[in-house]
Specification:
With 102 residues, the chain is of the alpha/beta class. Helix content is 33%, strand content 25%. It has a four-stranded mixed β-sheet with strand order 1-2-3-4. Helix 1 links the parallel strand 1 and strand 2.
Length: 102
């Protein structure tokens, strides 16, 4: 198994460009598993709970899981990434593992 570690500084409050960077990294190298940083879809250091809640996502029903899951199917690769998970009014600092099978 070839494992790649992708370290970068996610931009706070900008999930779309952060996701794009993850997608590019997943497609760039011949690997089996890409390991990404904590909170890599949202960035860090929010001023308050409401600010983080605005960029958090449900797992697995959010945009990050949908787009990265599609890329895993397309490339035949797996990814693990940190995300601010929203479940109702609760927030979690979660890790998500996606494989080509789902």
């Amino acid at each position: 198994m070839i494992v790649g570690f992708y370290q970068f500084s996610p931009t706070r409050g900008r999930p779309d460009p952060n996701r794009a960077r993850l997608l590019d990294a997943l497609r760039a190298e011949p690997l089996d598993l890409l390991v990404c940083p904590e909170l890599c879809t949202t960035g860090y250091l929010y001023l308050d709970r409401a600010e983080l809640l605005a960029v958090s996502e449900p797992v697995p029903g959010g945009e990050s899981c949908a787009r990265l899951s599609a890329a895993c199917r397309e490339t035949g690769r797996a990814v693990v990434f940190g995300i601010a998970e929203r479940e109702g009014d609760r927030l979690y600092n979660s890790a998500v593992l996606l494989t080509p099978d789902g």
